[in-house]
Amino acid sequence: MTTLKEDKLAAETHMNAVQLKVGDMKTMSEYYQKALGLEVLVESAEGTTLGRGTQELVNLRNAPGLQLASRNEAGLFHTALLFDTQADLAATVLSAAQFDQSKFVGSSDHLVSEAFYFTDPEGNGIELYFDRPRDGWTWKNGEVSMDTIYLDPNVYLNSHLSEQAVATQRKAAADIGHVHLQVGDVATARQFYVNTLGFDETTALGEQALFVSAGGYHHHMAMNVWNSRGAGPRKDTLGLGEVLINVPSEEEIGKLAERLSFAKVTHHHTGSELRFNDPWNNNLRVTLG
C-alpha cells in the first residue's frame, strides 16, 4: 500500500500566476506591459493582474509601506515565462532589452531550454525561455541533464526574430513555466518540496540548488542558496507574495492536505484550494487547474 510519504503530485500539475508585492504600482505595471508585452486583465484598488490572452501571468499587489528585501534573504530568485516558439521568445527579449528600466543579467543554453534573464525595477528576477522538444532531453537514473552554456543574445535575435513575431508579440501565448526560489538550505528544501509536497527531484547541484517537477518536466520549481545560504524565515517585504500551483482535481488537493497534516505543516484547506507556507515563509496556494 502506498504511504503518504510516497504520494506524488499529479503529472498534470503546473504553475500559474505569480503574485508580487510592489511599492510603485505605476512603474511596475508599465514595466510588465511595455518590457514584457503583457496586457492588463484585471485592475482594482488592491492591484493589477497581467497576462497574455486570458492567461494570468503576474499579479501585482499594492504594498507601498513595505521595504525591498535584502539580496541575501529567502524569497524569489526568478519567475520564468515560457514561450511556444523561438520567434515569440526573441520578440519579448527584444522589447525587454530596449526598455529603459529593464536590466539584462544574462542568457544561457540549458540543454533542455534557451533562457534570457532580466530584473524588473524592484529587483524581481525574470526568466524568458523556450523549451527544446522533450524527446531531445537526456535522462539518466531519473535525472535530466542540464547545463549553463553561454548563449549570445545578438546571435539568437538575428537567428530567430521576425517582423511577424514583433508585430503580434502581445497575442503570442506565454505561461509560467517554473518558479525559482532562494532558500536557506537544499536539504530542508528537498524534505519539504519532494518528501512532503510530492514533486519529483529532477536534478541537483550538490548543496547549492535543487530542481523539482511533476510529470517528467525538467523543473516546475527550483531552490538555490547562491545568495541566501543560511537564510531564515522571510520578513514581510516587497517581492514574492504568492506561488500558485494548479492540480487537476479536488482529490489531488485532498491528498496533498493529508501529506501536509502528516508532516505537521500548518495549512488552510477549503476543498478546492489549499494555502500553506514553506519553511522560509514563502506563501504557496494550490488550486484546481
Please provide a written account of the structure.
Mean pLDDT is 96; it is low at 1-5. 21% of the residues lie in helices and 38% in strands. The chain has helices at 25-34, 86-98, 153-160, 163-167, 186-196, 250-262, and strands at residues 14-15, 18-22, 39-43, 47-52, 55-62, 75-83, 103-109, 113-119, 125-131, 139-140, 143-144, 149-150, 174-182, 200-205, 209-213, 221-224, 239-247, 267-269, 273-277, 283-288. It has six helices and 20 strands. The protein has one domain: 2,3-Dihydroxybiphenyl 1,2-Dioxygenase, domain 1 (Roll). Strands 1, 2, 3, 4, 5, 17, 18, 19 and 20 form a nine-stranded mixed beta sheet that branches. Strands 12-7-8-9-6-13-16-15-14 form a nine-stranded mixed beta sheet, covered by helices on one side. Strands 10-11 form a two-stranded antiparallel sheet. The protein is an alpha+beta fold and 289 residues long. The radius of gyration is 18 Å and the shape is globular.
Q: How do the SSEs run, as a string of H and E? A: EEHEEEEHEEEEEEHHEHEEEEHEEE
Helical stretch tally: 6
**Overall average residue pLDDT:** 96
By CATH, the architecture is named Roll
Gyration radius from CA atoms, angstroms: 18 Å
CATH top level class name:
Alpha Beta
Short description:
The protein is of the alpha+beta class. The chain has a single domain (4-288), classed as 2,3-Dihydroxybiphenyl 1,2-Dioxygenase, domain 1. It is built from 6 helices and 20 strands.
